[in-house]
Amino acid sequence: MKSIDYKNVKIKEGFIGRLQQLNADVSVYNVYKRFEETGRFRALLHIRDDAHKAHVFWDSDVAKWLESAAYILAVRKDEKLLGIVKKTVDDICAHQMPCGYFNSYYQVYEPENIFKHRSEHELYCAGHLIEAAVALKESGADEKLYAAMKKYADYIYERFYVKKDAGFVTCGHPEIELALVKLYETSREEKYLALARYFVDERGKREEMRYEWADSRYDQSHKPVREQKEAVGHAVRALYLYCAMADLARIDEDKELSETCEALFADIVDKKMYITGGTGSSYHGEAFTFPYDLPNFYAYDETCAAIALALFCARLAKRKNAAVYHDVFERALYNNILAGESKDGKAFFYVNPLEMCEEAVIYNDSLKQKQHCPIPERVEVFDCSCCPPNFVRFIESIGGCIYGEEDGKIYVNQYISSETEIESTKIRMRSEMPYGGRAEICVQGAAELCLRVPSWNAGITMKVNGKRVEPSVREGYISLYCDGDIEISLDFHIKPRFVYANENVRQDGGRKAVQYGAMVLCGESCDNGKQLSAVRIKSLAGAKAAVGEYFTLDVKAERLKTSAALYSYDAPVAEPITLRLVPYFAWANRGRGDMRVWWL
Predict the structure, then answer these.
(1) Is the sign of the CA dihedral 158, 160, 163, 167 positive or negative?
(2) Rounded to whole angstroms, how far apart are CA atoms 223 and 415?
(3) Residue 284: what pLDDT?
(4) Mean pLDDT confidence for 356-383
(5) Does 10 map to a domain?
(6) Same domain, 421 and 447
(7) What is the C-alpha radius of gyration for the chain, rounded to an integer number of angstroms?
(8) N or C terminus: which one in the chain shows less Cβ crowding within 10 Å?
(9) Do both 501 and 590 map to the same domain?
(10) Pick from 68, 70, 51, 144: which is nearest to 102 by CA?
(11) Three-state secondary structure readout of 23-54
């Protein structure tokens, strides 16, 4: 399926439209401010400062910020933002080596070790710089970085593919692979595609250096990629690699690689994905562990990993469309990804737990030797600050995931208020989602339209030009032929529903979550008091939804109360309460406190 490029999709007023406005007005500038304060932009000047030493991956933070700015500038005029972009690009180009190499850390602190340490993010940073360069060129904002990064890519091609004289064969952190595919698709120069294939195909064929504490599964080099059927190791590394694999499977029509991607997707979605679309259940290695291991308080669920899962879904759909890819994309978007940013657009979560216990955080803070513990509030910058610019760039590019075209059919994959023109067919959509289940789609022109039916739907009501029509659903889509001016009204009858975990998920046995459309809901102590673990919901009958500053769902529930004894022979007494639930993505915006997703 060919996705309709974000530049050809105008996102209108609505939930995502408001989020993009916040992104452009606040988030992109606040991330820039904090990166400037912490030295990331100054590092581009290659001034040696041993007291405030640049980190090996700082270039990737700046690159993702540049990519974010490119997407904003493609659809909005912002001279201030453009000025920062131009200055940043000038700084990079002024300090690029004559051979094309650029790295703010290695050129200044370890020039003798260029391309010698596999795990130190050189090619990872290069990949993000290439992605930024492609985005800036395609947005029309800048072509200077594109020329510079082509020169860098040529140097990487010479060292790794022609001479093969670098100190390693494949990068410890996949990213360069998918970036080279983007560069190929923009330039149509075959050598970039050949290099991407090389990096993918050579992975896992030999023993390569890695962190002392990690095994080969950590960076997905435990076996050749076509033999990898289970998602293992660092979740972001894995999913960036899978993105490149899906790209190559599509371009090369590689059946074996396609089947591998499908197996990996199934392993994640069926055994290793949180209900919020989060992935990577362990702090140790930020990694996938084993099937059904999905702890709640200690869930890692890095924001970048959920974004990477969404990107993998989008690429799988480009290879061969299926509704399930857009369902998982939607789940990740409206839950784990959106939870990564605060309501004011200034602060971020790196880790996204499904349960918060404030007392555990306070106790951990008191220890001299701390254990891993999720933070209870978002912060503006991290030492490892990959997530903030990743969030901003993802939200700005989301228009490219709404519509698609395959075999002469036009697909509506996400219900986001927007408009586009595909060949001679104009489409205008107004959507209530995620808070409501209705969408209106106006079509001008002749086209066969395929409308995705969200997996959470509780029934479908459809009208065409005001007349009730019984929808025919096939493989997750409603298909109808439009000719002329057609108005389609859809109602997926959004309602709260219980979701039950597989019995093998030991952390959630006997419990249930509440989902409202695409949104997973949670309860916070600021609304419901403490002892959330003792709350039981028997039914969702009579639940009342409201949309104000926050979306809320009030549910009749009960809190189990015991005697004062630590253990008692007396059964607990059920005390009726009204439980207030909010979207998971909205938690921790009203101060510290407890939070829970799974209920008795």
Answers:
(1) positive
(2) 39
(3) 94
(4) 94
(5) no
(6) yes
(7) 24
(8) C
(9) yes
(10) 144
(11) HHHHHHHHHHHHHHHCCCCHHHHCCCCHHHCC
Exposed (0-12), middle (13-18) or buried (19+): which is 567, by Cβ within 10 Å?
A: exposed
Are residues 239 and 300 both part of a single domain?
Answer: yes
Residues constituting the chain: 600
Shared domain check, 223 and 339: yes
β-strand partners of 491:
438, 461
CATH number at residue 483: 2.60.40.1180
The pLDDT of residue 550 is 86
Q: How many helices (H) and strands (E) does the chain have?
A: 17, 24
Q: Of these residues, 286, 330, 355, 432, which one is catalytic?
A: 286
Tell me, yes or no, whether 252 and 300 share the same domain. yes
**Is the residue at 5 inside a domain?**
no
380 and 464 in a common domain? no
Which tokens in the block code for residue 82?
């453009």
Do 427 and 312 sit in the same domain of this protein?
no
Q: What is the pLDDT of residues 273-317, one digit of tens each?
A: 999 999 999 999 999 999 999 999 999 999 999 999 999 999 999
State the DSSP code for 272. I
pLDDT band of residue 383 (cuts 50, 70, 90) is: confident
What is the number of domains present in the chain?
Answer: 4
Does the residue 304 lie in any domain?
yes
Is residue 233 classed as helix, strand or coil in its secondary structure?
strand
- Nearest Cα to 292, choosing from 275, 308, 273? 273
Query: The whole model's pTM is what?
Result: 0.98
Asked if residue 221 lies in contact with residue 204, where contact means CB atoms within 8 angstroms, the answer is yes
CA 430 to chain centre: 24
The last residue of a domain, from among 442, 474, 491 = 491
Q: Tell me, yes or no, whether 219 and 190 share the same domain.
A: no
Nearest to 23 by CA among 72, 75, 76, 78: 72
Nearest in space to 234 (alpha carbons), one of 286, 310, 303, 307: 286
Is residue 37 annotated as a catalytic residue, yes or no? Answer: no
Residue in 243, 304, 373, 386 annotated catalytic: 386
The parent domain of residue 559 ranges over 496-596
What is the DSSP secondary structure assignment for residue 269, as one 8-state letter? I
**Which residues have CB under 8 Å from 569's CB, separation 6+?**
none
Residue 286 bears catalytic tag = yes
Q: What angle, rounded to 10 degrees, do the helices at 144-156 and 176-187 form?
A: 120
pLDDT in tens, 139-166: 999 999 999 999 999 999 999 999 999 9
